[in-house]
Amino acid sequence: MRGLSASSNSxxxxxxxxxxxxxxxxxxxxxxxxxxxLEARSHGGRWLVRIEDVDTPRAVPGMxxxxxxxLARFGFEWDGEVLWQSRRTGIYAEALERLKADGYVFPCACxxxxxxxxxxxxxxxxxxxxxxxxxxxxxxxGVKPRxxxxxxxxxxxxxxxxxxxxxxxxxxxxxxxxxFRADGVFAxxxxxxxxxxEQGVTxxxxxxxxxxxxxxxxxxxxxxxxxxxxxxxxxxxxxxxxEKLSKQTLARAIDESSPxxxxxxxxxxxxxxxxxxxxGASVGEVWAxxxxxxxxxxxxxxxxxxxxxx
Length: 310
Known about the structure:
By secondary structure, the chain is of the alpha/beta class.
């Protein structure tokens, strides 16, 4: 599973957009899709679409197909076939077995309730409870594991193309993290790392809400001897209350009656300064302008930004 470094000039650029089909595409989704697509095309690279539906309890039936239809109506063109995580559980199982064989993971019998009741529980960087290490040294005889966790050790450092230098001490900031859940679902961190490697993704451009996941993903890439992509985290679109646009915050679906208007709003959100009147042009004309004028350096270096109309 060894790969080449993403910094090598000999490797063609490969980017991707990987939505979770838990709700319709909203403005924040459009921003992430547009930023990743334009950055890939500006480098003459390939742009892939992946449906991250490995978390089957969250996936809404028919939503993935609806998302793909919306992307097409907004002028997005992706390369190759769409990859569906739900069809790849055997690949993730192989990666987990390799982690087990190398001693990088351990079985955990702790329930969420038990972890929540640990006195003075510390929070991880992403706001979740940091694992206290209860099962690190093995389970008592006869106790069955609920999940599998990675031994989070060492410091991960990387340069984000938008957010700058990042550093995370895994034990302190994250704690031992889950790669196989108690409900029998492979965790997002493992699935995305395996998929990016298999698809040859060299650059990950996505929302800053996932910045806190990046160190864990780089950690897994190193444990599995995989190439580490370059990362760039775009500002996250929020509502008037400062909440990230999502299904949970009742984000409105993209208005498909005016694709050009929405695309221009996303370009403006990304600091591209589209000209007055472009929102009245055709979708093809908006894309032509965007492809000819895209500059990653103009994207605001903020983690969150209020979405227009929210």
